[in-house]
């Protein structure tokens, strides 16, 4: 598996999603050129998947970069997400139209619920099923959903989510959640796979980088792939974008994979899906 940068995983509806993508969170929305440069660099490096969100406020820059790349639109897998403020049935349909307009595209490859806002995510999903049925999106999924959220959704949905995008790295291995998703045919996608760079200082990661003649980032991203998890590292620096793409020419041993697994501390760099509503004042 995952032998080249063009490799992809087949989602539960038959759509192929690249194993590696570029995340553009904190892509300086006030500076569209900054985002465009990162996306164009990634496409030049061979990436064929770009992950954005309405909340990132940089969909316009992503769209301009994809159009300017010279690569046919159907060869670029574009993911965006409905933000928390626009969840609910009618609001989601309007939010999707706005994202489509911001991106300047006719369709979106993957549309996600960004966070499981308890009061709205079921109606949000119903709207996303409508968009999927109408062919406006090639696949729909969720982000930051825990097992309890997925249980509720799966009990009532018509379309099983294609992916669940969550924080995932050696200090947050999410084994139970991944096992659950695998059992339901839901592909796990890793955001913050490098834990905002903190993992690069981990002694074991540095040891393995030396052993394999790779960088620490490449070791961790390769761990993602060998665990069957799609990865979307974020970077705006050309050298890092190229470095992160060079993870297909080597393989970690089973023993080293297990050593990385053992780093788990259930430690997050981002928001906890069980606590974000209280922190953001979203609980009724």
UniProtKB/TrEMBL annotation:
Oxidoreductase recorded as keyword: yes
Keyword Oxidoreductase included in the entry's annotation: yes
CDD domains in UniProt: AKR_AKR5G1-3 (cd19157)
Keywords, ordered alphabetically: NADP, Oxidoreductase
Domain NADP-dependent oxidoreductase: 20-264
Domain of life: Bacteria
Pfam families in UniProt: Aldo_ket_red
Family classification: Belongs to the aldo/keto reductase family.
Protein name: Aldo/keto reductase
Organism, as annotated: Paenibacillus lignilyticus
Phylogenetic lineage: Bacteria, Bacillati, Bacillota, Bacilli, Bacillales
């Amino acid at each position: 598996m995952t032998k080249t940068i063009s490799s992809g995983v087949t989602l539960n509806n038959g759509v192929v999603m690249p194993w590696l993508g570029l995340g553009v969170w904190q892509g300086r929305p006030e500076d569209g050129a900054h985002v465009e440069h990162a996306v164009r660099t990634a496409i030049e490096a061979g990436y064929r998947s770009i992950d954005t969100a309405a909340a990132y406020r940089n969909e316009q820059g992503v769209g301009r970069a994809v159009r300017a790349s010279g690569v046919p639109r159907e060869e670029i897998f574009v993911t965006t997400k409905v933000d928390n403020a626009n969840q609910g049935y009618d609001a989601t349909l309007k939010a999707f139209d706005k994202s489509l307009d911001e991106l300047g595209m006719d369709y979106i490859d993957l549309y996600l619920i960004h966070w499981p806002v308890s009061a709205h995510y079921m109606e949000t999903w119903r709207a996303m099923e409508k968009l999927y049925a109408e062919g406006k999106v090639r696949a729909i999924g969720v982000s930051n959903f825990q097992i309890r959220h997925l249980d509720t959704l799966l009990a009532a949905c018509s379309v099983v989510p294609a992916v669940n995008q969550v924080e995932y790295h050696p200090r947050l291995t999410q084994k139970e959640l991944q096992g659950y998703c695998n059992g339901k045919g839901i592909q796990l996608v890793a955001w913050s796979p490098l834990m905002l760079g903190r993992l690069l200082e981990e002694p074991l990661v540095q040891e393995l980088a030396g052993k394999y003649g790779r960088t620490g980032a490449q070791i961790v991203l390769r761990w993602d792939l060998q665990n069957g998890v799609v990865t979307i590292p974020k970077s705006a620096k050309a050298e890092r974008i190229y470095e992160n793409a060079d993870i297909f020419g080597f393989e970690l041993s089973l023993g080293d994979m297990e050593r990385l697994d053992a780093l788990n501390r259930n430690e997050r760099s981002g928001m906890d899906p069980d606590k974000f509503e209280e922190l953001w004042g979203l609980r009724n």
